[in-house]
Structure formats: structure tokens, C-alpha cells
Design goal:
single chain; 236 residues; mainly alpha
Length: 236
């Protein structure tokens, strides 16, 4: 292991509560370090591609680590930016084509069998996506959790692939650049990025949960009101 890689492994190990040295390294940081040690900047790209396919893998750890590795001279900053962006695009494109394969008919088939849902809900969502899909794909690449999932509806709705590719590349480049540069500038304090990103992600999760809860309350109220007006008849 090179001096730079050894230093990276030691710091990542400390951040994950493990012992000193790469051999004791565990967790996401250890896995990402191992990929970058073996594959160089391509390892960072592979890690980010997998992060897109499996959202529990946090880009908030992988990207700053790539920046820190670049600051230690394992590879250049430009390589870190290009490979991580390429990885983001590859992962997003894979999800886009999964959405295409799932198709609109299957989505409606599943939706119609979910409790508390109406076909009109999905129809309104489609209309909204038709109007705002481009902005959603672009800005969605910069929102935790949604940055991966947004590719699926783009595929289901058959957004033109060239437009999807352009917007995904642009949005991913912005998100990745912020985190890679943060790791590059912070150096041995790269793990501080995760603290701020973690707070942002928690806010997003709280907002999503609150929105879902509010939707459930409104839907249940609507069903109860409809049953009362119908004298105990069928629900909406």
C-alpha cells in the first residue's frame, strides 16, 4: 500500500470507528478505499455507479473520499471529477432503462392494486411530470434519495434519452463537484462533509414522511366523507 493510500485507509478507519491501518478498515468508507486502491479513479466511478443503483450507499462518503484521495496524489482532481460523474451517469442510465422496461402499463397495474390510491393520482402525476420533468431530473440529481430514484419515472414516461442524458450529466456533475472539491479542500477532515450532508438528508426524509402522512390523512378523510354521503356505500 502506498503512503497516500495508507494515510487514507487510516483516516477512513478512524471515521468508521475501526482500528488503525487498512487491514482493520470496515464499512462503506473501507469498501470505497479498497476500490480506489485497486482501480484508481475508476474505482471511485464504480462506487458511485453502484450508489445510484443502491441508494443506501452514501455518495456523501464516497465523493469526499475521492476528493481526499486526489489531494494525496493517488490520482488527479480532474480524474476524480470525470470518473465519479461518469459513474453517476452510468448508474442513472441503468435505472432509466429499467423504467423503460417496467413501462407505463405495469405501473398502472400495480398502482390500481395499492390501498388508498386512485388512478387519478397517477394521472395527475404524469401530467405534472410532463410539464416539469426536465427540471425534476436536473435538480433531482442534487437531492438525497431522489437523485437515484428520479431516473425510474423518466424511463417509465419515456423522456427522450438524449435530454435525460444531458440533464443527468449536468446535475450529476454539479453534485459530484461540490462533494469532491469539499473532500479535496478539507483533506484529512474530509469526513466533516458527511455531517452536513447527513443533516440535509434527514431534512429531506422528514419532509417526505410529513408529506406522505398528510396525504394519508387527507385520503382517509375523503374516504370517510364519501362513505357517509353514500350511506355506508363503497369507498372512493
Amino acid at each position: 500500500m502506498s503512503d497516500a493510500a495508507a494515510a487514507l485507509a487510516s483516516l477512513a478507519s478512524a471515521a468508521n470507528g475501526t482500528g488503525e491501518g487498512g487491514e482493520d478498515l470496515t464499512g462503506i468508507a473501507g469498501w470505497a478505499v479498497d476500490l480506489m486502491e485497486k482501480l484508481g479513479p475508476a474505482g471511485a466511478g464504480l462506487a458511485i455507479a453502484l450508489e445510484n443503483l443502491f441508494p443506501p450507499l452514501p455518495s456523501e462518503i464516497i465523493l469526499p473520499l475521492a476528493g481526499f484521495t486526489a489531494s494525496r496524489g493517488e490520482f488527479s482532481l480532474i480524474e476524480a471529477l470525470l470518473w465519479t460523474t461518469a459513474g453517476s451517469v452510468v448508474g442513472a442510465v441503468a435505472l432509466y432503462w429499467i423504467g423503460v422496461l417496467i413501462g407505463r402499463d405495469r405501473v398502472y397495474w400495480v398502482w390500481d392494486r395499492l390501498p388508498l390510491t386512485k388512478t387519478s393520482d397517477l394521472e395527475r402525476t404524469e401530467i405534472w411530470f410532463a410539464r416539469h420533468g426536465k427540471k425534476t431530473v436536473f435538480f433531482g440529481r442534487m437531492i438525497p434519495i431522489f437523485r437515484s430514484l428520479i431516473s425510474l419515472p423518466a424511463g417509465v414516461e419515456r423522456m427522450p434519452f438524449s435530454i435525460f442524458l444531458l440533464l443527468t450529466t449536468a446535475g450529476s456533475a454539479i453534485w459530484n463537484t461540490v462533494f469532491v472539491l469539499a473532500g479535496y479542500q478539507l483533506g484529512e477532515q474530509w469526513h466533516r462533509v458527511e455531517d452536513y450532508a447527513g443533516t440535509f438528508q434527514k431534512l429531506v426524509i422528514v419532509a417526505v414522511v410529513a408529506a406522505v402522512c398528510w396525504w394519508l390523512v387527507l385520503r382517509v378523510r375523503s374516504m370517510v366523507r364519501t362513505r357517509r354521503e353514500g350511506g355506508g356505500g363503497g369507498g372512493a
